[in-house]
Specification:
Radius of gyration: 37 Å
Strand content: 15-25%
Pfam families: cNMP_binding (PF00027), MS_channel_2nd (PF00924)
Protein name: Small-conductance mechanosensitive channel
InterPro entries: cNMP-bd_dom (IPR000595), cNMP-bd_dom_sf (IPR018490), cNMP-bd_ion_channel (IPR016846), LSM_dom_sf (IPR010920), MscS_archaea/bacteria_type (IPR045275), MscS_beta-dom_sf (IPR023408), MscS_channel_2nd (IPR006685), RmlC-like_jellyroll (IPR014710)
Shape: elongated
Number of domains: 4
Number of strands: 16
Strand order of the largest sheet: 4-3-2-1-5
Family: Belongs to the MscS (TC 1.A.23) family.
Domain Cyclic nucleotide-binding: 329-424
Largest sheet: 5 strands, antiparallel
Number of helices: 16
Length: 475
């Protein structure tokens, strides 16, 4: 022990070297172990210099021995720097557990303040410098530097506010000052966004703190989606709204609560603008759902006889003949073949909740939806789950037409619907005349069987409880 105390500089240097080597060579994922070792080495370093008669709170007391005086002064200053470093890593560990990646900026600022306090304390206690004068001079310099770096400091402190209040986090989709993108990083000066065009937008933190921020990722499991449709003014709004209501019911991706809705937004001189909106659970499907809603709106408006062009004109055709233009399985037929097929189509009205084609039923015809929404449900044990929803120009009963196989799903009208029936013999004759119709029906059957087997029930997300204590811990 006497040998250790007689050579404090040597052993202190060895402890500091061991700290540096262990910190850089040990695995980064073992963060708690590394910090524990650093804390243990710091306590050993403190014990060593105190037992050697060196106090970080007092100036060294060897004025006659310049070498010893210089070494003791260096060890005392190193103690303050070492203490500041240990304290910053402990604060970093605490912040990491509470605020994660977004607390990095706050951790850096706190670390800078800790080191600043350590430097001032070392100057006052160890070097016995006039700290009051130093602080006064530093204050004047700080004012000058602050005025020169006003914009930068504004960004820094705005970044601290953003990291503390958390209006957005890394990986959130946000719109800041008209710029929409995914947050990739929040640093000292700015927030970095990856836009939908694949470019990077850098928004200064001071701008973000003052701007209107729309966080598209919150709430986590509810995101708005809407479409806008323009229709000529001479069409009665109730007809358009009914068609758009059926459009919203035709999408199973929309959440039931809050309920989707269609409204008349604005009436212009010649056209009226209607908006259909709802909410989805997955933000990544927003574009896909919007495209689906536009397609459904077109089909339901057309099925309701609503022409969206002001100067629409043409030869009048039957409703059945017009419907065949949009049925995919009959696209290979020429105009004359569609005319003949339309003559064998009979319309039937179905009310909401009425079964169109039941499970295990062998249909005697091919069904073609003209108006309304039909839900297809498949068995799942003792229950039935919805596999999909269908709208105008879609067909049902293809299994019975192809192979006299019973229906593997139950088709139920969700709204008042008009459905055309094509007799089985007529449909089969059409298949014999056109091999492409036969292939299209087989492909449709395969796709629907795949969809019915992959239909899953989504589990509701658990909502975490909050409170004042939780708010403090997360900050």
């Amino acid at each position: 022990m006497s040998f250790v105390l007689s050579h404090p500089l040597l052993w202190s240097a060895l402890l500091l070297l061991a700290d540096v080597l262990i910190w850089h060579l040990s695995p980064a994922q073992h963060r708690v172990v590394r910090i524990g070792i650093r804390l243990g080495l710091f306590l050993s370093f403190s014990t060593l210099i105190i037992n050697a008669g060196i106090s970080p709170l007092l100036a060294p007391a060897w004025p006659d021995d310049s070498v010893l005086q210089l070494g003791a002064t260096a060890l005392a200053i190193l103690w303050w720097v070492y203490a500041a470093r240990v304290l910053t890593v402990l604060i970093g560990l605490a912040l990491l557990r509470r605020v994660g990646h977004s607390g990095r900026l706050l951790q850096d600022v706190i670390g800078a303040l800790v080191f600043l306090i350590a430097v001032v304390a070392a100057a006052g206690y160890v070097l016995e410098l006039p700290v009051k004068g130093l602080l006064a001079t530093s204050g004047a310099v700080a004012i000058i530097v602050g005025l020169a770096l006003q914009s930068t400091l504004s960004d820094v402190f705005s970044g601290i506010v953003l990291n503390t209040t958390k209006p957005y986090q890394v990986d959130d989709w946000v719109a800041i000052d008209g710029i929409e993108g995914k947050v990739t990083d929040i640093d000292w000066r700015a927030t970095h966004l990856l836009t939908s065009a694949g470019s990077t937008a850098v928004v200064p933190n001071s701008v973000a703190a003052k701007a209107k921020i729309v966080n598209l990722s919150r709430p986590t499991h509810m995101h708005g989606v809407s479409i806008s449709i323009q229709v000529p003014n001479h069409i009665r709004p109730r007809r358009v709204l009914d068609a758009l209501d059926r459009t919203l019911q035709g999408s199973s991706s929309l959440l039931l609560s809050p309920a989707p809705k269609a409204v008349l937004k604005e009436a212009g001189e010649s056209m009226s603008e209607y908006v259909a909106s709802g909410f989805i659970a997955d933000l990544g499907k927003k574009g896909e759902v919007r495209n689906q809603l536009f397609d459904l709106a077109h089909r339901h408006l057309e099925a309701a006889g609503i022409v969206r062009q002001l100067d629409a004109s043409g030869e009048p055709t039957s409703r059945a003949r017009t419907l065949l233009e949009d049925v995919k399985v009959f696209r290979s037929l020429n105009a004359q073949e569609r005319d003949r097929l339309a003559q064998h189509m009979t319309a039937q009205q179905y009310s909401a909740g009425q079964v169109v084609l039941d499970l295990d039923e062998v249909a005697d015809c091919l069904f073609v939806i003209a108006t309304g929404v039909v839900s297809a449900s498949v068995p799942d044990g003792n229950e039935r789950i919805e596999a999909g929803r269908m709208g105008p120009s879609e067909v049902m009963g293809e299994q019975s037409i192809l192979d006299d196989i019973p229906s593997e799903a139950c088709f139920t009208a969700m709204t008042s619907s008009i459905i055309y029936r094509i007799d089985k013999n007529v449909a089969r004759a059409c298949m014999e005349q056109s091999g492409q119709v036969n292939n299209a029906l087989h492909k449709l059957q395969a796709v629907r069987q795949k969809n019915s087997h992959s239909a899953l029930l989504a589990r509701p997300a658990q909502v975490k409880k909050g409170g004042f204590l939780g708010w403090l811990q997360n900050r």
